[in-house]
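Work Package 4 report. The design task specified in the project plan requires that, given a folded chain encoded as structure tokens, an amino acid be chosen for each position. We show below one input record used in the internal validation round.
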């Protein structure tokens, strides 16, 4: 579930390959992508998504990621990493903290909180607090998509 501000909620969209935690056991890198179902945001229909690119760890097993967290504290750092949040278009986030809470049955329970840019063209930019608490598929190889019938 995604919560933006105090009143906007979106459910995960697990119907395609957009939402997952990818793990590369060769180098311990993991990343998170989550797409959300279309819903209302300020009177407009939109389907938000978040993309957090590779985070390198010294872990050799996805199960060892439980308890791992990663933070970005500035818009510049987020922009440099090319981590984005899409509402009307892709924008870097201002800050976020991503945490892996649990690994269970080929799924990862993740929590991500932070501040996103709602409108980067506004002066000053419009920003909003967000919170994600989701259970997403774990993908370690192309063949893993078959487990989720995707």
């Amino acid at each position: 579930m995604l919560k933006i501000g105090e009143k906007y909620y979106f459910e995960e969209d697990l119907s395609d390959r957009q939402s997952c935690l990818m793990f590369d056991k060769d180098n311990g890198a993991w990343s998170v992508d989550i797409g959300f179902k279309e819903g209302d945001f300020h009177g407009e229909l939109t389907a938000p998504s978040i993309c957090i690119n590779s985070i390198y760890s010294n872990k050799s097993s996805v199960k060892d990621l439980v308890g791992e967290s990663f933070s970005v504290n500035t818009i510049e750092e987020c922009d440099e990493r090319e981590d984005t949040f899409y509402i009307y278009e892709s924008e870097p986030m201002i800050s976020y903290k991503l945490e892996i809470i649990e690994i269970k049955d080929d799924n990862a329970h993740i929590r991500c909180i932070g501040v996103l840019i709602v409108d980067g063209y506004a002066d000053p930019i419009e920003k909003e607090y967000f919170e994600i608490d989701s259970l997403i598929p774990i993908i370690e190889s192309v063949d893993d998509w078959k487990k989720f019938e995707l």
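Residues 14 and 88 are 20 Å apart (CA to CA). Validation will be extended to a larger panel in the next phase.
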